[in-house]
Amino acid sequence: MALDYSEPAQALTFLGQLDPGSCRVKIGKELFCVGGPDLVRRCIDSGFDVFLDLKYHDIPNTVAGACRAAARLGVWMVDVHACGGRRMMDAARDAIQGTPRPPLLTAVTVLTSHDQQSLAETGVVGSIDEQVERLTGLAVASGLDGVVCSAREAALLRERFGSVPVLVTPGIRPSGSSADDQTRIVTPAEALAAGANHLVVGRPITRAADPKSALAAIVAELQSAA
Ligand SMILES: O=c1ccn([C@@H]2O[C@H](COP(=O)(O)O)[C@@H](O)[C@H]2O)c(=O)[nH]1
């Protein structure tokens, strides 16, 4: 569940309605900028596993320090951008390995908002699938736990890398819901069938008239597909 709220109070009010057994929560750049580490700790203290989604992308030393700080906060998962390269990912992995409770470390491959044209505009030659596969190979070689990708690439990655890498898939849209700014969207049941491990869902829940029911409907779809 992506807690993409502008105010910590909104996030905490919503969290108060949720059972930590029904979902984990993701804190991204906007909410972290206003709520900071205190909000992360409050979510953890309420029993939720927290994915701190700050998508670090910087020189190796800086990313290592940021990952270490996230690990010390007690988060369940933290991520970097795979296009930061091998040395950056190696440094991130080494940094969290030295912490008491290392979080899962994942790498963003190609953002789910990208389509073929927008990716090409960034100078990447080749298809989205090729780029996702290439960056997943780098992440796996660096010993990361997995990658963030669209569930559209999940089957390909399972075929190429097997069952071990954790596949985290944003861009989830229940059938009939708005794509918003996402392009590579997949329904919850399809994502599960393709081999995704952790589905990230934000606006289909946060912008629903009844967010709690929207989440329950997604959980029910996943349970009947499992
Ligand atoms: O490739 C990526 C990586 C991260 N995200 C994040 O996931 C959520 C998706 O929110 P929706 O409202 O369900 O679209 C959001 O926090 C993104 O920052 C992503 O969408 N794609």
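^ LLZGTKA7 complex. The longest helix spans residues 29-45. The chain has a mean pLDDT of 97.
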